């Protein structure tokens, strides 16, 4: 990839560039707008739209699923067909229009006693938000990765491996980028959850939806202000820079039995081998590789007329690379299902608990989600400054702990969190039943009993979510980077669908046994959310043990590169 810069840069910097810092701020603003709507949406659906608990939770999960799944389908266009700058601008504008519609829906609902029109516009607005966000997220993250690559000094035309002396430094810089990116996201989420939940509960939903709309307008303005400092990647029109087109053509050729690898001579074979060396599937750094890379441009041009040969040979490699990530991706789904609970049943759980602080103030249940973000912000420096240095000394690994280990630790902590949630819910139900028999002597359980499960989810977030970002970033080819981020977000998308399906199946089964057995009854004193939490704990434990087994046999692309380097040395 060739890079052009509108603003001259200085020498090598140890910190992040201006463009990276600006995009981190923009990502934080986007999270503020999204969390300002999503964190308390279940309350809006139950209290204003008058949905049942199960239907509201299913609606939120389904919407979240589409929101997180859309990047999987929009990533090919972000990778292959559209300049990322204009993709970000268009998708953020669509996002803004959806929030405007959502605000108008709340305004119409506040002036009308009927909800039919409000529900129609609600779903329409949420769909626009999901569509805009689904395109915006992978494009924005990939655009940020372009800025990072420029700072690291990668040569995308030759994909040369950095020297061994700089490898650790560049690895640390990459980790630093992801840490600060996620820190910005968490800061925006914290403000969105705390401030917006209070405004929505205190001043109403019109203002509560109008403020996120204004923040998206600010996002568009700031993004346009950064035109002079961004790095722009020229993806070109050659098929080589369209990896998804190669994948689609290969699959089509296999189905129609017309995909044949035709090598006219040894010159074509050498050109293909050089093309594969130019991909991040093998970044070995040795004298021979450096010498042969100088002939890449000439060899590739001679092969341009034989698209079927190049497509059949390299696309199968790319498909295989994506399929090998599928087992890890699948085992992360239950982690995503657990993370759907704070915005749905944890919030409804808090509505049935004692929320008073003083005689006049009540804690909005959705604001407890801020403890997840707050624990991330407070404990992230502890992770970097204390845990990682200790792990480096113990394991003698340059990164302290591997990405796979990091994700596994987070998965284990999330299981502990959902077990605690089940125990707290069982205690709440016990007190609720005692209140029915002796209301004057028993008080509801305090909402602060929910804090441990939220804090543990925040700690698990530090390990697993940041690890997922770095894992998928590192395991996909550079030209498919938006797809790597889409794989990461799709974990939460499919997890949302799994959560919605579980709720529907369980409700259908428990309802058939009688109203008192319904786990998701609207009367929170009759609901059995503790049973649902135990089910999630069991299925998550199974996924965790399977993840451990898969990790023993999984070999990362960086490990394969080192093995190949050893073979050629």
Automatic annotation (TrEMBL):
This is Protein NRT1/ PTR FAMILY 5.8. Belongs to the major facilitator superfamily. Proton-dependent oligopeptide transporter (POT/PTR) (TC 2.A.17) family. Pfam families: PTR2. It is a multi-pass membrane protein. It is found in: Membrane. Keywords: Membrane, Transmembrane, Transmembrane helix. InterPro entries: MFS_trans_sf, POT_fam. The chain crosses the membrane at residues 15-34, 54-73, 85-109, 115-136, 180-199, 205-233, 321-343, 403-424, 454-473, 485-506, 534-554. Its main location: membrane. PANTHER family: OLIGOPEPTIDE TRANSPORTER-RELATED (PTHR11654).
